[in-house]
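Sat 14:20. Reprocessing the chain from the morning session after the first attempt stalled halfway. Input below, unchanged.
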Amino acid sequence: MVILKKKKPNHRYEADIMRGIIVLSVVAMHTVGTITYIDTTEFYSVFQYAILILLRYNRQAFIFITAFVLVYVYNRPDLNWVEFWKKRTIGIIIPYVIWSIIYVAINVKNPSLYNYVYDTLLGSSSYQMYYILLAIQLYLLLPFFIKILNRIREKAIVTLVSLSIFQILLMSYTYYVLRLNNTNYKFTQRLVHIQYRFILFYLIYIFLGGFFALYYKDIEKIIKKNYKKAITFLILSILALLTSYVLEIYTFHLPIDFASAFDQPLVITYSLALIIIIFKLSIDISKNKIKLIKKFNKQIVKFFFLVSEAAFGIYLIHPIILNFVSSNIIYPIYKYNINTPLIGFFSVFIGWILTVLIVLTIVLIIMQIPYLNILVGKYSKYERKQNKKTPMLDTQI
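Finished this time. Tokens:
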């Protein structure tokens, strides 16, 4: 049984809640992308990819909350970086390598040593593994990032504006130049595939998370004061993103995969707005300020805490469970009710819920098994006793 541990007074529950929301949205996005056989009409395909593009904020949000937690916990002069990296080797790199090997064995027919090495190094053994590679890079560079962050902490606004401009220009070049380059298509697509596995392309979200950690109390007040403006900006960002999506499909006749790509410039403004909204929502849930869920707030916080604790394992394992649910549960329902209206919408929703519940249960069980729990980034019981002083807010992703 998983026991909810008593947190320290300065524990940021909103980080648990936000991480839980993001993990659930990751599974939702992959569910929408996996269950594509339900309805092949043009309307449903366009609608399905519109949902996908709105869910493609989660890698940026994950990087934000990871940076926020790391700076909040580890921004102190007495930190032993050798111990920090040792913990990351056990908790992140070892399970990452194990699951990379497993996914290569599953996804590649007659894999060679080259397949195992290449896909592990580039995080391409399965569609979700690239993010673990990004997290590893962030952990390795964290001492330097914190040092830089503290040096420029008085120039937070200038830094964030400059990085936003840099990010938009970079994404514009990638999206409109590299992706549409037909001269050397294979090379440019490979370049696009590789470049988003490097932390350089997410600097705005890293520094945003870092500054939120440094100025937490001030940021909370600023967001509270400007919450309506943030919601308005989010709505405008969604409208701009979906308008661009529809125009690219029906006016410019671009492929739907291109129109729904995550690396288009408009996704940046949308992601930044949504990150701020979810952060504020997570704060309100953690402080029981939302009237609609006031009666069940304690249970909701506990649920998100469980999801947050299991986040790394969920992220690693969910494609296997999703494929099982899609093939053995959703597809038979689809075949039996093929002419039922709206079966596609309900099938995707059911697939998402079942995948979340099954994978959460499996991960929570594995977490309680000594030594086997390394598969989901947790220590054995003996190792946990040796690490009692480890800050409890710090988790892998």
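Residues 381-393 have pLDDT under 50 and may be disordered.
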